[in-house]
Amino acid sequence: MRPRLLAGATLRWNAARAQWLMMLPESVVVLNETAAAVLSLCDGERTVTGIVTALAAEYDGVHAADVEQLLRDLADQRLVELS
Amino acid sequence: MTVPAPLGLLAELTHACPLHCAYCSNPLELVARTDELSTSDWLAVIAAAAALGVAQVHLSGGEPLRRADLPEIAAGCADRGVYTNLITSGVGLSAERLAALPVDHAQLSVQDADPAGAARISGTRAWDHKLAAARVVKAAGLPLTVNVVLHRHNIDRVDTLVALAERMGADRLELAHTQYYGWAQRNRSWLLPTAAQVRAADAAVAGAARRLAGRMEVLYVSPDLHTGTPKPCMGGWGRQQLTVAPNGDVLPCPVARVLPDLPVDNVRDRPLPAIWYDSQGFNRFRGTDWMAPPCRGCPRREVDFGGCRCQAYQFTGDAGATDPVCRLSPHRPLVDAVLATAVLATAVPAVDAPDVAPEYRRRF
Ligand SMILES: C[S@@+](CC[C@H](N)C(=O)[O-])C[C@H]1O[C@@H](n2cnc3c(N)ncnc32)[C@H](O)[C@@H]1O
Ligand code: SF4
Ligand code: SF4
Q: Where does the Radical SAM core domain start and stop, copy by copy (chain B) (predicted)?
């Protein structure tokens, strides 16, 4: 499983809002830091394990189960594709 | 209540358009070209919106390509780091024009699955332009959404519409039932599908979405008159989005002009932050305090925000009423009466005869 963003979706830092945003073609989703960190690694190349490893290199206390759950939640919100 | 900063700006650059769609949600009173904002006005609007927190601008209209200064306006968005979405009929979108437009995404409207049907609803022969526009967008490597407004005369062709979007290389296909505002409201009895048509379309769309999962995203905007579930219009009044009309009027939604008592401010007279945060118009239906029963106290009031104010006004004469499509609204019988007319219209073939024409959106 190599999670990737949907077509036309991009992740952007918005300075005026001081927020990470997911830009979808017709809407904007405000992200918390954790979701933004995970989504920035969903490039369609990395596997879920690869994402967990990359996160663990940068943050403390990363648990694979939490990341997987977050990815499922994000997929339910149509922010990422898990195919 | 703390008012959140807006996320999206719908920039209606012009009401001019080469098409004359009978379902067009543009107002009956179209803004004349001589009343349109100038290039520098639009650049100032975009700068102010971005400073306010707007992260996404939809360049729409009318037909945005009718503005010769579209490249400068799009560049104004790009300069501010805003995600820019071009919403277009495709007429006039050549490779050269698109190359000069720094946009992130294009949404192309398609009126029907075949040239004759498309010409009938749009009052224009634009078929080849649509196919060419899709090719141009894909060749530029931009993500493409194909948007089809569904109504009685094309709703039976969901499968062919899906096939057309696939051929066009769409990344996303939006099949959106007609919202009855503007010219669509005027032509409602000609456009309204029957309940049976809607059920068949629901199933066809669900089938296509399953089949295409992972290849093309299929989005469906249900017909709220039929479903009885109000739409959370614009994600709540003055909560996420603002619209700037071609003449600079600032509105909580593109249709809100129909509300007779709504005070409307203009970017030429008042700064955008003051309009967003402090104007009477934007505060009129913010949050939930304005609500009356049954919305007041309803568990869904933070989900659908009581539905659409314009629809409430159009059906009941009271913009503060519960959206009458809601099954809990005491005005729901008004909606059911309208739905009953669709069955009548299709039962009497004469009403659908080819010589019975809708009132096309005014020529410009
Ligand atoms: C008003 S149009 C302006 C942009 C361009 N002329 C076009 O048609 O794509 C903006 C979008 O609204 C859609 N639209 C127009 N009238 C509508 C209606 N009554 N209900 C739902 N969508 C509508 C169009 O298909 C288009 O995607
Ligand atoms: S919906 Fe049709 S008539 Fe209305 S602006 Fe778009 S292309 Fe023009
Ligand atoms: S009563 Fe109001 S809040 Fe409740 S579902 Fe109906 S429209 Fe929504």
A: 3-217
Provide the 8-state DSSP code for B350.
Answer: H
Q: Backbone dihedral region of B189: left (phi > 0), alpha (psi from -120 to 50 degrees) or beta?
A: alpha
Whether A10 sits inside 8 A of B171 (CB atoms) is no
Contact (CB, 8 A) for B51 and B97: no
User: What is the rounded CA–CA span in Å between residue B137 and residue B351?
Assistant: 39
What is the SS3 assignment for B26? coil
**Residue B84, Cβ neighbours under 10 Å: how many?**
24
pTM (two decimals): 0.94
The tens digit of pLDDT for each residue in B41-99 reads 999 999 999 999 999 999 999 999 999 999 999 999 999 999 999 999 999 999 999 99
**Nearest-CB residue to A25 (from B172, B213, B214):** B172
CB B51 within 8 A of CB B5: no
Phi-psi region of B193 (alpha: psi -120 to 50; beta: other; left: phi over 0): beta
Give the residue ranges of DSSP H helices in B13-101: 39-52, 70-79, 95-99
Helices B70-79, B39-52: axis angle to 10 degrees equals 20
Two tokens at A74? Answer: 């994000």
pLDDT range class, residue B233, cuts 50, 70, 90 = confident
The pLDDT assigned to B342 comes to 78
Which of A11, A19, A23, A82 is best to mutate for the B interface (most B CBs within 10 A)? A23
Q: How far is the CA of B309 from the centre of ligand 3 (A)?
A: 12
Q: Identify from B3, B52, B88, B105 which residue to disrupt to test chain A contact, counting A C-beta atoms within 10 A and taking the largest count.
A: B105
* Contact (CB, 8 A) for B352 and B151: no
Residue B305, SS3 per DSSP: coil
Strand runs labelled E in B165-279:
172-177, 217-221, 241-244, 249-251, 265-266
DSSP-assigned states of every residue in B115-163: HHHHHHHHSS--HHHHHHHHHHHHHTT--EEEEEEE-TTTGGGHHHHHH
Q: Which residues contact B50 (CB under 8 A, 6 or more apart)?
A: A16, B77, B80, B81, B82
Tokens linked to B182: 């503007």
Look up the CATH number of domain A4-77: 1.10.10
Q: Do B107 and A26 touch (CB under 8 A)?
A: yes
